[in-house]
């Protein structure tokens, strides 16, 4: 019984080993290169696949997704003999797994060396300034050269990016100084523009303020002049309506003269013609009053009978009335009219209008 079971168990184990050895499950986005007796047979696709045990074997497992390859920074000499370190990043994808395995021994190392040589050729034809400012141009040239070279390897270069360009330390220091100078220049220009705009706005505000103040002064002057004109018109109508005596007006005019001299800076007067006429009017008023004043009559003398009757007595040549050569005192405190008028007729300093003011 045991002799019969042993061969069955051995055959079952061999069958299980062969079945398990022939089944291969390939994940998505992967490709398996199968060789039979050392020769390429097929490329397994994602899913369940069967191979011949002991005859077929998996040579390579490839990832066909887009991959990133970063090379170490490489020293490169520019056209103006300056050494710069350039760090690149490559994005590639395997399009032909068989070519990637059998056309090149190590495609990653081949890509790295090809990138270095291509980068030196491209940077060697540019100066430092162009190298620093022409990254897009460098990326395009690198991608074109690498894509042409790696096409036969079953690899497509999707993108090539310059990650960093490091110039020498002395160049960095000079560039930093230049950048600081440019920043200071821009700051100075912006500050000057700000001050200019501020001054323009301030001047515009001052101009508007002056215009508004001038308009306000103009309106105020117009209103004051209108008010004064109305006041003068009312006074004029009141005076003419009441038929005021010119002598009273002249007297009122003289009463206002002390008020004209109340100011501290009024050291010089300009006497108008109305003042002279006012003084003349007041003087004539006092003269008329002195002429019209009546004195008491002199006592009568007794009549003597020495003369013949019928003859009229001779008139006494003595003063019997007012004498034109003398002016009696008015009822003004015993002072003559000339003393009252004298202060009014006192000379007043008159400005010489012909002289120019100093």
TrEMBL record:
Stored SMART domains: PHB (SM00244)
Pfam families: Band_7
Keyword terms, alphabetized: Membrane, Transmembrane, Transmembrane helix
Record field: compositional bias (Low complexity): 319-352
TM region positions: 6-26
Annotated ranges, domain Band: 21-179
InterPro entries for this protein: Band7/mec-2_domain, Band_7, Band_7/SPFH_dom_sf, Stomatin_HflK_fam
CDD domains on file: SPFH_paraslipin
UniProt region (Disordered), positions on chain: 286-358
Similarity field: Belongs to the band 7/mec-2 family.
Name of the protein: SPFH/Band 7/PHB domain protein
Record organism: Raineyella fluvialis
